[in-house]
Amino acid sequence: MAQVSNKPSSWGGRTTLACQVHGFCPKDVAAVWLKNGEVQPQETSHAGVLPSRDETYQTWATIEIDPSSNHNYAYSVRHESLGAALRVAWDKGQTESNPVLTVGIITGVVWVIAGVYCHSKC
Description:
alpha+beta; 5-stranded antiparallel sheet; 4-stranded antiparallel sheet; about 20% helix
């Protein structure tokens, strides 16, 4: 499952976007922030891939942005349990994160694929 959230930063009118990916197995995952479709490695802060209590894994990454810019931001996740890269876009219209919407859309797809895959591989 992947979830994007946002919160105002403490300085300069900037916003911090965060994406958390969890419930995947095996451990290898590639997850990056995209700005207008381009990978943003220098602007991204990553956590390592960490184990979860349910024997799956989790990771997260943040990026500081100017919310008034015309750029589009998305988080891209590649994992062998997915048929294609999963992209979770940040909705500029949201002033606060809406995890229910994100979870509802993505959970069905990712949990079914990852659950079946993990059951046979982990």
